[in-house]
Write a structure and sequence with these properties.
Layout (H helix, E strand, L loop, with lengths): L2 H11 L6 H31 L3 H37 L6
Length: about 100
């Protein structure tokens, strides 16, 4: 589970309901970011597993390492977005 998913789960436990629009926005952000990055990792893992060429294996591992770093940054950005949404819902007169 990504950190942003845990933050959403905790917010729901605290009684915060996200709007349909907010849920859709977060789903789209996940699909356009994390899922694409996961696909890149899987493709490079396959390349790593099927080739004996040392250079190709190193290239695949370097790409995986870079993408994992990007995923961490993307997760952090989604966490900040969720935190802002939670703050909005907790604010007096939220949604008015």
């Amino acid at each position: 589970m990504y950190e942003y998913e845990q933050k959403m789960k905790n917010a729901r436990k605290a009684g915060i309901s996200f709007t349909d629009e907010e849920e859709t926005y977060l789903r789209c952000a996940r699909m356009n970011g994390i899922e694409i990055l996961e696909l890149i990792v899987m493709n490079n893992l396959k390349e790593f597993a099927r080739t004996e060429d040392v250079k190709k294996r190193m290239d695949a591992m370097n790409m995986i390492s870079t993408v994992m770093d990007i995923k961490a940054v993307f997760d952090k950005s989604l966490c900040e977005l969720v935190e802002r949404m939670v703050h909005y819902h907790k604010a007096p007169f939220a949604g008015v």
